[in-house]
């Protein structure tokens, strides 16, 4: 079983979108029993908060529900629990590496590193552009799935 943790700053926009997009892609491929997928935050700011309403709407536009998801903070123990820890931007990677005390097994990656266009996933919290975030996340998740199967 492949275990994947998607991580962003607050766990209310980018990482939950990635979590539920990846779950949807895996389900459509008939591989749900082979994957365990979650998301988390590097900060404590939004712990317990639901997914940001515009992010919920973007998922719903594509027939994907995130019902019941609340933000949680990444823990050092997540490093051992998950095979891949996927951050959305360089700052997330820095914070994830700090929380985990390093990355000795090479498990921490940026989402777009799996695509042909390296960089950071657009942050809709600041841009308001959930379409750009959707494109980044869906491309990254599809590339991860393609890499793993």
Model description:
The protein has 149 residues and is an alpha/beta fold. The chain has a single domain (2-148), classed as Rossmann fold. It is 42% helix and 14% strand. It contains six helices and four strands, in the order E-H-E-H-H-E-H-E-H-H. Helix 1 links the parallel strand 1 (2-8) and strand 2 (35-41). The chain is globular and about 40 Å long. The mean pLDDT is 97.
CATH topology group: Rossmann fold
Overall mean pLDDT: 97
What distance lies between the first and last C-alpha atoms, to the nearest angstrom?
12 Å
Tell me roughly what share of residues is in helical segments: 40-55%
CATH superfamily: Response regulator
> What is the makeup of the main sheet?
4 strands, parallel
Total count of helical runs of at least 4 residues: 6
* Estimated radius of gyration: 14 Å
**Structural class, judged by helices and strands?**
alpha/beta
Strand order of the largest sheet: 2-1-3-4
In CATH, what is the class?
A: Alpha Beta
Multimeric state of these chains?
single chain
- The global form is globular
CATH architecture field = 3-Layer(aba) Sandwich
Order of helices and strands: EHEHHEHEHH
What's the domain count?
A: 1
Number of strands: 4
Low-confidence segments, given as residue ranges, are none
> What fraction of residues sit in β-strands?
5-15%
């Amino acid at each position: 079983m492949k275990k994947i943790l998607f991580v962003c700053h607050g766990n209310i926009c980018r990482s939950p979108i990635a979590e539920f997009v990846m779950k949807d892609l895996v389900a459509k491929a008939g591989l749900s029993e082979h994957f365990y997928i979650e998301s988390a935050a590097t900060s404590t700011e939004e712990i317990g908060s639901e997914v940001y309403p515009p992010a919920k709407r973007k998922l719903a536009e594509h027939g994907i529900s995130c019902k019941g998801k609340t933000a949680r903070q990444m823990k050092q123990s997540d490093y051992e629990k998950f095979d891949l820890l996927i951050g959305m931007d360089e700052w997330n990677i820095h914070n994830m590496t700090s929380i985990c005390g390093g990355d000795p097994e090479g498990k921490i990656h940026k989402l777009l590193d799996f695509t042909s266009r390296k960089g950071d996933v657009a942050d809709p919290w600041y841009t308001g552009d959930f379409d750009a975030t959707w494109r980044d996340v869906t491309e990254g998740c599809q590339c991860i799935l393609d890499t793993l199967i």
